[in-house]
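Saturday, quiet lab. Running sequence design on the structure tokens for the scaffold JK sent over.
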């Protein structure tokens, strides 16, 4: 699973532009060398060889054009890729491609586009290198087989010349031939398996890296979530309106004429907003007491199974301090063999009780790869995603409850999971499936575990976060168990208003973010009218819920 760090040579006579390019490419994690001289840079490519040459040049320079064509010709076997940066027009870009450049960009170029084109060229180089390596292995295999067959031919000739020893020689030839076939078969089988496992593991490594929390990352995520929660605090909004009201009163006492009328109008509007927030806050408090105990955090662990053998993807090994074995670049090493722990990706969402042993949530929560292009890509690598474990954690509970998928909706992003919830004694949430239950402009309350475990850590305080991070090392399972032990599992309640209602969605502005998917949306009458299924990045903005009536077929079955 290890791979060398890819090297990039940047050639640009402009020192300022050279520095900008160097910092940009190095920030993307590549090994970078620079040269202000084109002659020196071309010579370095010839002598040492690099994976990619990033060349800023004028195509009117004949010497540069000749050197470029020479470099591409001399490096045909090593496969150095060339991206040409030029001020030229479309005709000059075409000329650059004719001279051998693999890609041509005109100034001004966008950093994001440049990095993307660098990744594409390096990916193409890796594919070509892999093809060359496979060709080399195949050639060696053919040479081994040819040698074996030549040995058989020589032995058979000797058998004909020494007829008296025919029986003994035939046995020897058969054994030699069988050994040659066995060695060639083992070699080819091992090469194909190693290559196949490498491609599979690299296909999912991006998803695994995203879900692998380490101690330092856990603390950083909790701090970020704490800042978001502070920005969405209803109490802070109330305090701001109270302060604004007091300022308007002071201005009115010292004003006169038409200004007094305008200030009084502003004061009236401010007081109306304040009263509305106070009324809605009281409703939210009642919802917290009645509904929050029945809203759970869903922790879904995704495993990756070999499509043919159904063996799980595993770490190649675990070190003494519990860390997975890593290659020279610091990346975990994966395999389909052995008994090391399985590779798992952790996902979090929200669910709520709607009946005896029944929890309603989103389809994409219980099957995180559903309509997920990144996780779905593992299918093309010979791996199938599957559920390793699904646990529901309720507020003030002493342990999680194992649940499993019962049904998924064919019409909307909804699913039902089942588990033994009898010991919890939590009431199901009341629902209102009528179309008129959701009305534009009406207040709405959203319950959910926004940002998953990060929001709960954020509300725990800095000291508690440090303690949990040190005790768990950032492992998701251990973090959740620690939150349960400390009674810190509780949903985030936010308030807002319904912006629009269509046949298949409710648009609302109650602040939330990822992790709230599957949470209930409650109207002013205290009834569930929808289920959150899509949120914008970060807090605020317009979010979307599935009308609860789409869940009725699932609940009836």
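Result came back. Writing it out in full:
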């Amino acid at each position: 699973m290890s791979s060398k760090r890819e090297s990039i040579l940047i050639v640009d006579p402009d020192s300022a532009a050279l520095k900008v390019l160097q910092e940009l490419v190095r920030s993307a994690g590549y090994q970078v060398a620079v040269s202000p001289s084109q002659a020196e840079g071309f010579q370095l490519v010839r002598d040492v060889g690099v994976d990619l040459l990033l060349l800023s040049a004028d195509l009117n320079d004949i010497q540069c054009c000749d050197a470029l064509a020479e470099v591409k010709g001399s490096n045909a076997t090593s496969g150095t890729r060339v991206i040409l940066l030029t001020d030229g027009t479309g005709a000059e870009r075409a000329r650059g491609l004719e001279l051998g450049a693999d890609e041509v960009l005109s100034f001004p170029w966008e950093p994001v586009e440049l990095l993307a084109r660098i990744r594409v060229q390096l990916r193409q180089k890796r594919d070509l290198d892999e093809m060359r390596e496979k060709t080399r292995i195949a050639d060696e295999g053919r040479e081994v087989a040819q040698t074996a067959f030549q040995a058989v031919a020589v032995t058979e000739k000797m058998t004909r010349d020494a007829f008296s020893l025919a029986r003994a020689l035939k046995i020897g030839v058969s054994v030699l031939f069988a050994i040659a076939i066995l060695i060639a078969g083992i070699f080819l089988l091992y090469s194909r398996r190693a290559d196949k496992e490498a491609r599979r593991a690299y296909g999912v490594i991006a998803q695994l890296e995203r879900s692998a929390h380490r101690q330092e990352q856990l603390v950083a995520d909790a701090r970020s979530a704490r800042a978001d929660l502070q920005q969405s605090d209803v109490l802070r909004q109330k305090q701001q309106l109270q302060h604004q009201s007091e300022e308007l009163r002071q201005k009115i006492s010292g004003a006169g004429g038409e200004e007094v009328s305008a200030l009084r109008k502003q004061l009236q509007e401010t007081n109306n907003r304040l009263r509305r927030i106070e009324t809605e806050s009281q409703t939210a408090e009642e919802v917290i007491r009645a509904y929050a105990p029945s809203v759970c955090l869903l922790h879904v662990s995704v495993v990756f199974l070999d499509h043919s053998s159904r063996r799980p993807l595993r770490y190649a090994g675990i070190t003494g301090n519990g860390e997975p074995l890593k290659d020279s670049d610091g990346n975990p090493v994966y395999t389909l063999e052995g008994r090391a722990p399985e590779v798992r990706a952790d996902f979090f969402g929200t669910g709520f009780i709607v009946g005896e042993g029944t929890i309603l949530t989103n389809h994409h929560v219980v099957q995180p790869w559903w309509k997920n292009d990144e996780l779905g890509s593992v299918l093309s690598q010979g791996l199938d995603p599957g559920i390793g474990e699904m646990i529901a954690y309720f507020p003030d509970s002493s342990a999680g409850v194992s649940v499993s998928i019962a049904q998924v909706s064919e019409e909307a992003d909804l699913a039902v999971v089942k588990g033994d919830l009898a010991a919890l004694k939590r009431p199901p949430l009341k629902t209102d499936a009528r179309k008129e239950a959701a009305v534009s402009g009406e207040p709405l309350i959203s319950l959910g575990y926004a940002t998953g475990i990060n929001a709960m850590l954020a509300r725990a305080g800095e000291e508690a976060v440090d303690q949990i991070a040190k005790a768990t090392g950032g492992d998701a399972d251990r973090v959740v168990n620690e939150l349960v032990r400390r009674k810190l599992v509780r949903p985030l309640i936010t308030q807002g208003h319904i912006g629009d209602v269509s046949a298949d969605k409710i648009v609302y502005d109650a602040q939330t973010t990822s992790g709230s998917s599957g949470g209930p949306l409650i109207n002013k009458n205290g009834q569930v009218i929808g289920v959150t299924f899509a949120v914008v990045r970060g807090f605020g903005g317009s979010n979307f819920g599935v009308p609860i009536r789409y869940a009725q077929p699932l609940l009836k079955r």
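Notes for JK: Residues 290-556 form a domain with the Thrombin, subunit H fold (CATH 2.40.10.120). The chain has three domains: 7-109, 127-211, 290-556. Ask whether to fix the surface positions before the next round.
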